[in-house]
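Incident log entry.

Two folding requests arrived from the same account within the same minute. Monitoring flagged them as a possible duplicate submission, but the sequences differ. Recording both here for audit purposes.

Request one:
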Amino acid sequence: MKWLLIVAASVSLACGCSHVSTQGAPGEFLLRLSPAALGTQFVLQQQITVDAGGQTRQIEALLEADASTVRLAMLDMGIVRARLSWDGTTLRHEFPPQLPRQLDPGRILTQIQLAYWPQEAIRAALPQGWTLEATQSQRVLSRNGVAEIRIEYLQGFSHEWVNVRDGYRIRVLSMSQNPEP
């Protein structure tokens, strides 16, 4: 459990710096796109590596998405330690109480949606001053013309999330459990 807390703190640090917040400080936002807007479905087994503050941590996750729900389970040695689900209306989550309160399931959902949802759906949800530039190999989320987040696509569903401003990386290696769309 101690290992999960360390990883959670790293993820919390990483997510907390991305300017995607439920508290809504000026200029911050939270994506809550409909699962149906994804336009496909997938089941992914993921190895997530967080490089933040000079430390590297890893965690396993299972991510499922279809037209009705997005589900994520974070695992420690094969045991589910935290989970979230989003049905387009309600974000449900079960996180151990000892996790830092800054570990916000809404931020995690935002990262998932920025990486996998269609760019048109993301652009339609961006607040004023935010833009999304996208190619097949990357996405760059900018605020007032300054790059904040860069997502570099690797192979399949794998990607690297780079917070340009705050200097951390999250590498997500995904293995699809179903045929790729």
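Request two (distinct sequence, not a duplicate):
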Amino acid sequence: MPQAVAGPEIERLIQLLAKLPGLGPRSARRAALHLVKKRDDLLTPLAAAIATARDAVVECSVCGNIDTVDPCSICTDPRRDPATIIVVEDVSDLWALERADASKGRYHVLGGALSPLDGIGPDDLGIDVLVDRVAGGGVEEVILAVNATVEGQTTAHFIMDRLGDLPAKVTRLAHGVPVGGELDYLDEGTLAAALKRRAPFEG
């Protein structure tokens, strides 16, 4: 077992940073060293921001988004279309769609995708809450913006079955060639989906 090269406090910081997505042990060590070196400029305000977020951030009881108010600012925004619900797996997906600024609907965060191998079933996700929202009336379209993975598509089919008896239209994101994409660099699944979902050419 390698010997620790820093005090236990710094080692603890490295261990915690290494748990963040995209940071392995080596990257965590570099980040920790940078934070410690820039204590006044980075470490102190970062610690304060984390403490504030811990106390202030809550999960929206309506859609599952995270915010500092409940219901969240998206659910209470009068400019949003309550007739459209965009279903995503995680809050990070919601943020990605917001950056794209492609829709003014409201959201529903599932909290993951169905994955029997990982022990994630329908009761572990916000599917029942989604069904209740749609059954409550006023929803005309549910857009399934789940990931194009086996788990994501399984989740989408399950939700479509659960919403089948309700009047809302259920749609899904198109899969195919991305804007600016070159065919030679795309995987076979993306190309097959693009061909299957081909549309009339609009000049």
